[in-house]
């Protein structure tokens, strides 16, 4: 497709500039990928997805010199780093428990704006509706496929699994969801069970 | 139907938030995926201080907003069960990257990158409205620029051309200002230099005048000495003439 060729070429130009340290190009890569990364980290249970996203991109920019590939390969590269950072955070929390310092912004007793609250509720509800009850490896596949917008091959690379294994996890996740929703529960009306 | 195995093709469709053909049993799952995908779309978060130092935050806000606006505009008429593909948004921002290229970078990337996104030199110049008048008229007729029926790509290319022309204009302006500043600095430096030389010259002239005056005074005192000597010689002569008298007697 000519449009894709054009965008691939545009990506190469942006990547080249970012590799030479151009601020505008790093900004473009950030604007292009950060929303999906932060959504992925949030959906997979990071407690500080914004901070972790910044860490991910610092690592991405530090590793740009070593990166070779097109836009799809770059997206895989970004999500591979994001996934590793997420695993690190989850391991750290599992090992020593999780201590949360009080933060005015995070205090749920405060009333956020109606819009913020609605968005947060919608996100939480839709996340719970889709991911609740799925094992972690199936959640990884679903979130990377849906929010990360990655192909099966890309997900396999990010998770370090075989393509067949990713397809099987995806199929099992969809089977579980079909069973769950046909059992009378509708998406968005999930219970308030704990997320990961 | 509900016992049907979910094939890879079915899964791919459901993951996009769409219902595979003749698979109504997957409609609710597809709907849940679509809701999840939509609800998860959010703008880029606030970067940490360390990351912000490597970004252009003003640019981030600008292209983020424009991409979101255009994304929203384009996705509005989509069928209800279709989910906008994030790739569309990514492509737009990537192209906006080309618009942000510096003049040198654009030249360096040259025909390869620029031509593939449909921006030849004439295209950029035509879009910027800087072609000679007859050529501009033809360009407008052929491309429809700057009419209303411009495709997305055409619009992006036009923006790219305008940006290129604007970059060139700004560079020229910067160079002109730099040259003016340089000339002013040199003029100022020349004036200061001349003033310094004038002061030095005055001082030197004053010193020379002083020395000359002293020398002249010294020299002007020399005839008095000669007078004294002459007086002395006269007195000796008188004495001698007086003494000669008695001797002669």
Structural notes for this entry:
The complex is a heterodimer of chains A (196) and B (249). In chain A, 69% of the residues lie in helices and 0% in strands. With 196 residues, chain A is mainly α. The longest helix of chain A has 26 residues, at 71-96. The model of chain A is unreliable at 188-196 (pLDDT under 50). Chain B is 76% helix and 0% strand. Chain B is built from nine helices and no strands. Chain B has helices at residues 8-15, 27-40, 49-52, 57-75, 86-99, 103-116, 121-128, 133-143, 152-248. Chain B is rod-shaped and about 165 Å long. At the A-B interface, helix 1, helix 2, helix 3, helix 5 and helix 8 of A face helix 1, helix 2, helix 4, helix 5 and helix 6 of B.
What is the number of E strands of chain B? 0
Kindly state the mean pLDDT of chain A as a whole number? 82
Rg of chain A (CA only): 18 Å
Instruction: Profile the largest sheet of chain B.
Output: none
**Separation of termini of chain A?**
41 Å
Uncertain segments of chain A are 188-196
Shape assignment of chain A: globular
Proportion in helices of chain B: over 70%
Overall 3D shape of chain B? rod-shaped
Order of helices and strands of chain B: HHHHHHHHH
Protein chain pair with the most extensive contact, residues per chain: A-B, 66 and 64 residues
Structural class of chain B: mainly alpha
Distance, first to last CA of chain B: 179 Å
Number of helices of chain B: 9
Structural class determined from secondary elements of chain A: mainly alpha
Largest sheet of chain A: none
Query: How many beta strands in the DSSP annotation of chain A?
Result: 0
């Amino acid at each position: 497709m000519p449009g894709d060729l054009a965008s691939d070429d545009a990506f190469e130009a942006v990547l080249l500039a970012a590799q030479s340290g151009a601020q505008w190009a790093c900004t473009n890569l950030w604007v292009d990928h950060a929303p999906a990364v932060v959504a992925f980290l949030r959906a997979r249970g990071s407690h500080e997805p914004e901070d972790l996203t910044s860490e991910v991109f610092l690592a991405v920019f530090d590793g740009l010199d070593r990166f070779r590939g097109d836009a799809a390969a770059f997206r895989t590269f970004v999500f591979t780093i994001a996934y590793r950072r997420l695993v690190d955070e989850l391991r750290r929390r599992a090992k020593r428990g999780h201590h949360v310092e009080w933060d005015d912004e995070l205090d749920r007793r405060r009333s956020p704006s109606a819009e913020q609250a609605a968005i947060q509720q919608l996100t939480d509800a839709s996340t719970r509706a889709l991911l609740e009850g799925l094992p972690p490896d199936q959640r990884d596949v679903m979130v990377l496929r849906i929010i990360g917008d990655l192909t099966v091959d890309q997900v396999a690379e990010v998770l370090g699994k075989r393509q067949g294994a990713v397809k099987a996890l995806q199929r099992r996740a969809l089977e579980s969801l079909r069973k769950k929703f046909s059992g009378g529960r509708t998406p968005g009306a999930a219970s308030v069970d704990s997320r990961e | 139907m509900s016992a049907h195995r979910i094939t890879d093709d079915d899964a791919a469709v459901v993951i996009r938030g769409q219902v595979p053909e003749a698979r109504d049993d997957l409609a609710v799952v597809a709907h849940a995926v679509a809701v999840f995908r939509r609800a998860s779309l959010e703008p880029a978060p606030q970067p940490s201080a360390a990351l912000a130092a490597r970004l252009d935050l003003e640019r981030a806000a600008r292209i983020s907003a424009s991409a979101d606006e255009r994304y929203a505009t384009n996705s509005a008429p989509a069928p209800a069960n279709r989910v906008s593909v994030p790739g569309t948004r990514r492509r737009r921002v990537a192209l906006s990257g080309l618009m942000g290229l510096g003049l040198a970078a654009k030249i360096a990337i040259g025909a390869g990158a620029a031509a593939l996104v449909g921006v030849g030199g004439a295209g950029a110049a035509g879009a910027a409205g800087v072609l000679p008048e007859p050529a501009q008229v033809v360009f407008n007729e052929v491309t429809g620029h700057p009419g209303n029926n411009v495709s997305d790509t055409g619009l992006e290319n036009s923006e790219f051309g305008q940006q290129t022309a604007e970059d060139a204009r700004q560079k020229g302006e910067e160079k002109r200002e730099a040259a003016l500043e340089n000339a002013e600095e040199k003029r100022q430096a020349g004036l200061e230099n001349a003033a310094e030389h004038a002061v030095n010259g005055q001082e030197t002239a004053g010193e020379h005048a002083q020395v000359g005056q002293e020398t002249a005074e010294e020299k002007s005192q020399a005839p008095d000495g000669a007078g004294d000597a002459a007086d002395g010689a006269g007195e000796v002569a008188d004495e001698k003439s007086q003494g000669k008298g008695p001797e002669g007697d």
